[in-house]
Amino acid sequence: MRRKASLILLALAVFFAALSPLLRYYAFPRLAKIPANQYQDMVLEAKNATLLDYGTMKARTVPEVTIVQTLKGNVEASEKIEKTAGRDVVVWDGLSYVQGPDGKMVSKIPERYIFDAHSQEPVHATGEMVDGDPVKRQGIEFKWPFLTEKRDYEYFDAQARITAPIHYKGTQDFRGVEVYYFEQTIPWTKVPFPNTMPVKGITPESVAKTGTTRWYTTVRKFWVEPLTGAPVYGEEIHKEELRGGTLLGGREKVTAFAGHVKMREDYIEHTVDLVKSNRTLVLLMTSYLPWGFLILGGLLLSLSLYLEARSRRPDGPAPTKVGEPEPVTA
Amino acid sequence: MRALIAAAIGFAVALALVLTITAMGSPTGKTSPKPLLTTVPAHP
What we know:
The structure holds two protein chains of two kinds. By secondary structure, chain A is α+β, with helices and mostly antiparallel strands. Chain A has one domain. Helices cover 29% and strands 39% of the residues of chain A. Chain A is built from four helices and twelve strands, in the order αββαβββββββαβββα. In chain A, helix 1 (2-31) packs antiparallel against helix 4 (265-312). Chain B is mostly helical. Chain B has a domain at 1-25. Chain B is built from one helix and no strands. Chain B is rod-shaped, with a radius of gyration of 23 Å. Chain A binds chain B through residues 7-8, 10-16, 18-19, 22-23, 26-27, 30-31, 33, 35-37, 39, 41, 43, 66, 68, 70, 72-76, 78-79, 93-95, 97, 99, 105, 108, 110, 266-267, 270-271, 308, and chain B through 2-3, 6-11, 13-15, 17-18, 21-22, 25-26, 28-32, 34-41, 43-44.
């Protein structure tokens, strides 16, 4: 009976011990992925920003400029691309909608970002674009890979349509979450005008005819939770200028937008809570379960060996009879 | 010999379980009906 029990325990010990590395190194990389149907929105604000008044063509300080960013997973498009790509693909249709203090639209830039659901590597397929312009992204955008490393990454800048390094600048604590801080600087770069301009009747083509060009620079900052690869907070010191041409009335340049863009407080709280909960799921797969199974396997093996040893122990000799003590004489 | 068989069964079951779970994957779901926002939401 003990022998049979020890064999069952041995099988269970091997089961749990084998499950530990299989879960961490085989199952986790295959199961951890961005869901194709994810929908998320984000509100960012730039207080006391500088904004160009297209009526007077003069820059003025405004109390607030708001940026609403939406990302929507397009399941049908991802399934279509998966058929040819042969891997799990996510298609995000995004919109960055910028609104002035009067509630009017300042700019509206749609984009389609296609990437590998597990590694976040870009996948190139028809439809990949920024503001209607076909692009071929290199590097990441919006999100870092699961198990983010302490190193520089290549990050795609949608305004300039270029990829540049985003540098790892250290580990910090952000509202109780350990995060990696990344920073990217895009130097002054000539960028296209948005296809949708804030003033009716003005198009990128009509502005181009005046010879005026649009320039942009930014310092992009992200605080990324490394297990999930999700940014818990982001900031951008963003500047845009119009330069040259007849549109500026002889001036060399005029500021189109300048502001320190930060996530709105309620969205920070929401994001931190969401990332904390997803972090627990990743920890379950990468740490809690693998270590738990390994320890359990070790315990079951010990128990199995103990039962096996007891079952093999031969019957001991019969106890020796203890006689009556003899009287001692001096 | 019996110990070896028991260990092999344990390993095979673990392998089968992990392969099954990863092969099943997760459902993709449907595209959200919510629009791309052009107004500032009051809250997340």
